[in-house]
Amino acid sequence: MSYSSKGNRPFEWASKSQHSHVINDPYVQSLMKRCKFPSTNEEAENDVRDFAFDIETGSYRNITTIIAVDGGYSEVTVRKNYPSSKVAFFQFGGLEFSLDDLKQLGESPFIHPEKMEKFKKLERFKLAIPTKATSLDSLSMIDSVRIPLIEFFNEIRDEKKYIDTLKWLVFHEFKNKGIGNDESLKNITFGSLPKRNDKVFKDIEIEKSEIDSSGYFEYDGEKFNLIDILRFHEVVDEELGASGILGYLTNVIEHIIIVHCIKEIVTRKPSFLRRFLFIKDGPLGFFGQTAKLHKDMRELCNIYTREYSLKLVGLEKSGSFVEHAEHISSGENACLKKGQVLPLFNNYIYKHILPGPSTEEELDKLSPYASTSYYSGKLIYRSQTDRTWVLTIPIHDSNEVKVLNRNSFSNLDEILNVVDYLKCDMYENSIVPIALVNQLVSLANHPSSKMLEKFAIQSMSE
Predict the structure, then answer these.
(1) What is the arithmetic mean of pLDDT over 357-381?
(2) b or e along 69-84 (b: 16 or more beta carbons within 10 Å of the residue's beta carbon)?
(3) pLDDT for 373
(4) Distance CA 85, CA 132 (A)
(5) Any residues with CB less than 8 A from the CB of 19 and at least 6 apart, and which?
(6) pLDDT tens digits for range 316-351
(7) By CB atoms within 10 Å of each CB, which of 188, 234, 363, 399 scores lowest?
(8) In sequence order, what are the residues at sequence separation of 6 or more whose Cβ sits closer than 8 angstroms to the Cβ of residue 72?
(9) In what side-by-side order are the strands of the sheet with 340-344?
(10) Lowest mean pLDDT: which of 55-59, 194-198, 383-387?
(11) What average pLDDT does the segment 119-143 reach?
């Protein structure tokens, strides 16, 4: 690695000829020969024909309301001297509108601005956390991250708090059928808790009754909070900071917003849940330190899909799966035909999309793709209107599923027909609610980041 430049000393440029040593190295040459690429379109054609199936079009009469959730963040440098200091700003949005409103808008010869206003009425939720060399109230880096999260989860919104929703999820309070029939968990296990005075806490079991209304509880004379179940304290480093948790945190809060909506609906009128379709930007799963929550979310989906016809879908906009979807659905010789769905599972994924084992014997030993993080199954859908989406929809238990098919997904025809109905020509293979909510909450590099940077610097220097 070359030296950087400070003061009047020149920058050290990399050598122009040292690549020859790499190219001529026998080990490097043999390593390159062992590398393999995913299959071509022609090789995928047979598998697409074998596993794809048709969707029954026009069936979505039960769904009347859409709730779409998205979030974004921007990390800005608030001090550029050494060591540099950073802060991250988040904004999340939940957008609700009826299918009838969208239909009326589409039938109008002229779209009046007042009619568009109902599609811009969304709830915005804001958060800011220090991420590097910035201390909150002279706390450690870990607690400088934890405290804003605890405050965010305890903020009162319409007389409700997200800390109650998190508790409702992890203690499986969604299983309660009524007074006197409490099927929720009495205790849960925290994989770890933040260190206190060099004391390490692993696999700690806490009873629900020990947690107060703000999520706080005591263990071994120390005070902790329910948000510690997210385990972000394990990856926040006092020197390197908290930049590594930002994507995972965004995904968790997007999920909590959805769970909160589900909770409010089933608390007031459970039968109404079948009328809603919840759409999340990104796959349905929990990742990194938060992955354990996928089991709780799967349990919720299993019960509410069976009893109240819960409908939830995640929409992916980029990545290897999206690129593959474009390959097999574009051009005159497209493998995936209009109106078809291709479920994705180990044999197909590791053969045609991602590097991995290639023999049947090796594939049989593998757990289903992303089974430790996804509570959903992944599929590619090419609609009759020739849009192609990569979607995730909850499935009962991915650990038991080696091959996905139509029966793996509940309410599949209904969900996909609504997705097609919500098509949007603003962006490639986009849908209206995600395009709108993204426009209304995303924080662009320019000018948002620059404005947030100036705001943070000015506020912190006062």
Answers:
(1) 87
(2) bbbbbbbbbbbeeeee
(3) 95
(4) 5
(5) none
(6) 989 999 999 998 998 777 899 999 999 999 989 988
(7) 399
(8) 90, 91, 92, 250, 438, 441, 442, 443
(9) 53-54, 340-344, 376-382, 388-394, 312-316, 276-281, 65-79, 85-98, 122-132
(10) 55-59
(11) 86
pLDDT of residue 222: 95
CA distance linking residue 264 with residue 336, whole number of Å: 39
**Of 65, 82, 92, nearest in space to 153 by CA:** 92
Q: What does the block give as tokens for 242?
A: 């908290």
Other Cβ atoms less than 10 A from the Cβ of 132: the count is 21
Nearest partner of 72 among 426, 439, 373, judged by Cα:
439
Distance, in Å, from the CA atom of 408 to the CA atom of 369, rounded to the nearest integer, reads 15
Tell which residue, 198, 206, 65, 76, has the closest CA to residue 140: 198
* pLDDT reported for residue 210: 97
Domain boundaries, the chain: 36-71+95-122+244-443, 134-236
pLDDT at 111: 46
Provide mean pLDDT across the span 227-236.
97
Dihedral sign for Cα atoms in the order 353, 358, 361, 366 = negative
